Amino acid sequence: MISLDGNGPLYQQLSRGLRRSIRQQDYRRGARLPGSRELARQLKVSRNAVLAAYDQLLAEGYLVTRLKSGTFVSDKLPDDMLLAEQPGNTGIQPPAMTAQLSRNGLRASKAAREGRGLACFKRDLRFDFEYGVTRPDRETVQELERLHSKVINDDAFDYGDPAGDTLLRQQLAGHLQRHRAVTVSPEQIIITSGSQQALDICARVFLDPGDQVVLEEPAYQGARQAFEAVGADIIPAVVDQYGLNSASLNATADTAKLVYVTPSHQFPTGVVMPVGRRLELINWAVQTSTYIIEDDYDSEFRYDCRPLEAIASLSQAGPVIYLGTLAKSLFPSLRIGYMALPPQLVEPFGDMKWLIDRGNPVIYQRVMARFIESGGYERHLRRMNRRYAVNRQLLVDGLRDHLGDHVEISGSNAGTHVVVWSKQNQPGFIEQLISDCRKQHVGIYPIEPYYLEKPDRCGWLMGFSGLEQSAVTQGVMRLAECYRLLSRMLGRH
Amino acid sequence: MISLDGNGPLYQQLSRGLRRSIRQQDYRRGARLPGSRELARQLKVSRNAVLAAYDQLLAEGYLVTRLKSGTFVSDKLPDDMLLAEQPGNTGIQPPAMTAQLSRNGLRASKAAREGRGLACFKRDLRFDFEYGVTRPDRETVQELERLHSKVINDDAFDYGDPAGDTLLRQQLAGHLQRHRAVTVSPEQIIITSGSQQALDICARVFLDPGDQVVLEEPAYQGARQAFEAVGADIIPAVVDQYGLNSASLNATADTAKLVYVTPSHQFPTGVVMPVGRRLELINWAVQTSTYIIEDDYDSEFRYDCRPLEAIASLSQAGPVIYLGTLAKSLFPSLRIGYMALPPQLVEPFGDMKWLIDRGNPVIYQRVMARFIESGGYERHLRRMNRRYAVNRQLLVDGLRDHLGDHVEISGSNAGTHVVVWSKQNQPGFIEQLISDCRKQHVGIYPIEPYYLEKPDRCGWLMGFSGLEQSAVTQGVMRLAECYRLLSRMLGRH
């Protein structure tokens, strides 16, 4: 018999009940169903509800009608459909299928799991010196809210240009010219979903399994993972006080397809690559037909002087793929990055972006375009520079005051983080320090995971963009206390 | 001598002028520069400006200081930096580098160019029956604006969960349960940048070059391109009046990794797959260890009865990857799609999403979550269903009234487009009709490009979601006039 479960509209209850009856073979294949009037009378429901339910099951293929003889259960229903139902299970039994990943998928999972392991450090800490945390202030939020209202009332609903909104690309071309001396036309700019997608696109456009990529040692993990995921071999190039030294690369590297660098503020060490090195790198790239990926992730923040000219500005239409992002200067969840490309790469990169997601969401691209156009972005950067400069000074002063000769600070003239190198280098010291700090609600982050080979120094990263001034000061005091206690304890053993 | 160019702040003019002088070897490697007082006097500028410029070039590595003896041009500057400058070129000469694409990149470009060729049909036409155009109405825009203001003032700035915002995934799980009888936990849902990214992720997780994929013939091009881009071989499976028939697949297909289907409203033909076929497909998939990608792109719009249960609802925890999107039901530029995955795929798919872009932008995910939660999305769908139902009826009636027996209409019971099959099938007829229509400002779109093999019927697609009612009626009249004129002309020859 058909049972009603009491949930939702009557005709839906009827459809469900009828479907159940058919599957349980109360009505068998080919069986004639009661007429709609009759069923309505039996169940004490309206005939319209029965007709609607029959229509539904006809459409679904459970039922068929034969001219002038009525409504029947389809005799083509496969066996599986007719198994007795398990309570709580209205479908076929789950088959035991494995994931069957491709080599591609396996590599990606492996690379991702390594990287995500790092991200797990993140906790809810009161004094969290996490790197890369930025948050817009009240003024910027209000401005974005205002611009969003304009944009959403201005018909930004159709697919945009997959390479990015025209106005945003124009504004970014202007921004690059003013701030980084990089001269590109708006057509050479492609908007990406953060710089991570830009790295993934570079990897897919340039690399087949076994191809080589030169990477800074230590390096930004996200880059390494993107390259490893497509099966590339990583050639590490030691970073000294001037960043990556292309002169030190041996002949193996000459066949590399890409070299990835962060010249403005090397990630994670924070060193700045001087112009001489930049020009040497361009020469090496041209001689070896290698493209340079210049990841200029935090050049907006600079404390002692203007940022150096970008590598992309030293070699126009040359071998440089410039990566920028608004996710660091505004906020990470924005997921808007961009690439400035030499002309010969515009087409294949645009094709790839079209293929993989048809372009970024349009509304926030327009909001950003208007934010830059109105000067709001410039003002935002000035306010953030002032805020971060204060935080940086408090951090550096605090470290000097409380830890003095025990540590060496590097990378403090740009960006939003510093590296603290420890003079203590017993095995396990940093791990213990990090763990002790955590108990005091202080978050600091080891530099070691960014190295392929075990480094000969040990140290940790401290971001200073995500904290209030008082939290910086207090956090450093707590860190110093942990450091002293731990050193003393180790000294006694 | 140092020349000032008059652009921007004085110290920047000085930096540029000094840099130029060094590159032109007015000051040679190792040369001592004038003291800051002296240079300030020579150039009639403030000493502070000179000091700032010197600092900048020291930071850039052009200059070095030696204790107590002054400021010098670095003697480590590489030769290339010192070439005489060309007017208008402040950097190294552009080297002639080619793009050097990987096999991966070449395949992607090839696939993308085919697909983008299709997209080029798009023009600015008054009566454009383009497929897939949707636009929110006034009520929805106001609601989104209101929700955005809430969300942006509610600290949605940090990286979110790469798999998607928790609240949105909860809301979508509820939506899937209510509308598609698909039972998944929020953890089984991954938010993607439109369904195109979902297809790309499927391709990368499952396919190595040479792996096989079963595709409907004809099929949605975006799927074919995503699979071809990773080097997969496509096995076309003929679509009849009930959609893809897995019983017709020969033994070759048994080794396929994936089968891609659009059972709710086959793209492009519009046919609906009955339940029997759905169950057969699941059985085939389980027996051959093939995953089914169920692209449920437009199931929100249904005109005669409720949509059929999704394949994913018939086989819980089985071999089905369900794809849904808000880009079709709300607007394309939103770029929010989602996948509902069997449990064994949650981890590798989540890894891939993390790897390629770290997750969708957060703000609009939250806006959507609240839009569904508040019932606004439900109301939006009801209004759109009413609007599209009227448009669809006007279109179908118009075609019947004006073209009657000349055409056959299919796929009109769901979605936002119909297929019009022409009884005229002289070679070139459709192309000429499309071209004639365009001159009358009417956009219709050929079905042929969606086939791998040349089809034995000819026809065209007409979307009806992007037009006002009066435009539908007038557009059909113009189309019919073009059709009659062209038929008469061909009849005379």
Q: Roughly what percent helix of chain A?
A: 40-55%
Query: What structural class do you assign from the helix and strand content of chain A?
Result: alpha/beta
Give the count of helical stretches of chain A: 15
CATH homologous superfamily of the largest domain in chain A - what is it? Answer: Type I PLP-dependent aspartate aminotransferase-like (Major domain)
> Overall mean pLDDT score of chain A?
89
CATH topology of the largest domain in chain A: Aspartate Aminotransferase, domain 2
State the end-to-end CA separation of chain A: 81 Å
Oligomer class: homodimer
Low-confidence stretches of chain A: 84-92
Question: What number of domains of chain A?
Answer: 3
Major sheet strand order of chain A = 4-11-10-9-8-5-6-7
Rg of chain A is: 31 Å
- CATH structural architecture of the largest domain in chain A: 3-Layer(aba) Sandwich
- Count the strands of chain A? 16
CATH class of the largest domain in chain A: Alpha Beta
